[in-house]
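Assemble and predict.
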Amino acid sequence: MLIRLWDSILNNITAIYNGRTISDIPDDLFIPPEHLHVILEEFEGPLDLLLYLIKKQNIDITDLPILPITEQYMHYISIMEEMQFELAADYLVMASTLTEIKSKLLLPVESETEEEEDPRANLIKRLLEYQKYKNASEQIDDMSRNYRDFFVVSNAIDVKKSKTIEMPDIKIELLKKAFIDVLKRAEIFSTHNIMAETLSVRERMTAILSMIKDRENVEFIKLFNVDEGRLGVIVTFLALLELVKESLVDIIQNESMSKIYINIK
Amino acid sequence: MMKYSLENTIECLLLVSDEPMSLSSLIKILDDDSITKKQIEKSIDNLNQEYRNKAIHINKVASGYRFQAKNGLEAYITKLKDKGTNKFSKAFLETTAIIAYKQPVTRGDIEEIRGIAVNSNIIRTLLELEWIKVVGHKESPGKPELFGTTTKFLDYFNKNKLSDLPEISDVESI
């Protein structure tokens, strides 16, 4: 279908619609650019396009009529340019080759004696050579192949073999070291919220000590100043425990349920 | 001394192997001076006799021997493993054909024949598939790489050697 549409563009212009030939394509006929793109991709390069043009017109390749072929080729190129497709440079090279051959054919042969090669010879040779490998590629396509025409047992011919991942050799010590390094680095970036202690345990320890020093011993309850609230009470208690731990004071209670005294050591 | 018969050992090796196994690789693995290539060939013949009434058999391709399914199970196997469409582009096939039939060739040779620049992806894919390899460098400016096909390429198409590929003849007219 696309090729037929393409033919109609090339042949200035006949389209076949429902079996009828339409020679005038309406001006407003919109051919989506992507369709032309598909047509372009139908050809595997300038040689393929030339072969298509030659075959389509049943031209004898050994007597390649360069003029009509060149004209059609140029027409193709110009349409592509109009459509603003990025033409592969190779298409343009072929255009200039064709023009060169055409101009050589137009020039009169200077002398009869000089055996001048037919300027078309090389192009014809290339076209035939290309056709040969085009045929070969079709034959390869027809060959039986794995997972279409025959099947290999086991995972043998898994054509797109997944790449085996090489496992690096890591010693467990290295892993440990790396982890420690990470931890160290994390430490650098860790944040600390430093807030001024409203009441310092150390400071309270000093206060208690100086209180006791003056009087040898102080009743436990007297240490606390309820005005400081819960926080003050706790700080005082912590300071007292700290003092006991550091063996600076003794806590004495003569009998159970009696008063508790703090003595200096 | 082998724990199992030569037949059974070879059968196991071929089934376990990811790749076809050549006679020489079998010899090397079996590592027993008393085993000859002839014996291995005979064992494989014997195995195929045993597989006469089974759906698999041992087939010889370019890289060596491998197990293949016999014809007639395609319907099941394709359902079992979806291998995609298995379709190659024309450009891919033409490039492959030129390398296969005209090797060793350079990228330039391929471009000369096809009249259009070679798509690097195609060469890369062919190299990744290990269908082609660099067999040398041409003594010309830039020392371009020369490509040739591998046994894997032949394996994929169930062939033993390059001459098993369909013959191509020069085109006189089109």
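The mean pLDDT of chain B is 89.
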